[in-house]
Amino acid sequence: MKASASANSNIALVKYWGKRDAKLFLPHNGSISITLDGLNTHTTCAFSDKLAGDKVDIDGKAVQGAELKQASAFLDIIRGMAKTKARARVVSKNNFPAAAGLASSASGFAALALAAGKAAGLNLDQKQLSLLARRGSGSACRSIYGGFVEWQKGSKSDGSDSHAIQLAKPTHWPEIRVIAAITSRQAKKIKSRAGMAQTVSTSPFYPAWKATVEQDLDGMRQAVMAKNFRMLGQIAEHNCLKMFGTMITTKPAILYWSPKSVEILHAVMGWREEGLECYFTCDAGPQVKVLCLARDEKETSQRLLALQDIEIIVSRPGGDAHTVSRHLF
Ligand code: 2P0
Q: For the domain that residue 216 is a member of, what is the CATH number?
């Protein structure tokens, strides 16, 4: 059977940074994100006994090497669940530039979990899909749900309690805007996966990260439920800077920011002093995501574009990952 699915990417307000189990993608800490309607992946999957191996196309290019191995290992989990040996054909399209470093693995593995699960004849509920998507890429477990989402780290060694839940639907707080400012299109030198492993094993600040993240999670849950934008922004910025603190103190150091990224951080802090309420957050890369409310979307976008050599993508809180009837092959 052939099946297709659509999933949105997400931006973490309290970050997932560090694994306690690399094989099962179990995190050291919980995380909270907003699912983003502007960054979407559409994926079609079909299993067939006639294929000699898995064939995966992303944005018109055949995936090869380590990336194909990763996709096949994920499909193996689904094959195990469905008790089949059939190989898969997968075609996937992002509606945002693949090289822009905007967490395509989150929307990608969420869409693949749903499309491949259905194509294999599995009838998984959202919790099961979140558990499955996590095994492809940690942040993907949050993209199964729309709106405001928490990945509960869990404590079991088999990972069966490490999945996302929805804190609030997108309609709870539709005024939130996330403006992704793309500062560089060069592939980053150190992937998140390697960066977090290096942080856990070498940063002297990692214990401080782990010791303070629960209070960020508590505060962020409150901020989301009370729709307190100042509190949300302040915690998100602080949590992002703490994560960068652990990254830049690894051996060797990892510095994901470009000069342009730092320019935006200064600009956002300056605009805030002038009364424009916006906050920044960044992932493991040079792009900066600026958080603001709908009333300030236009002004914030214009000021970002005026910094030059920046592209922006504006997102609102997006919906759940869902199956779609339009197939890509
Ligand atoms: C996050 N990041 O919470 C954090 C913040 C980057 C910085 O999740 O190894 O691609 O596939 O589980 O999910 C990016 O890392 O890593 C990420 P794997 P992933 O969004």
A: 3.30.70.890
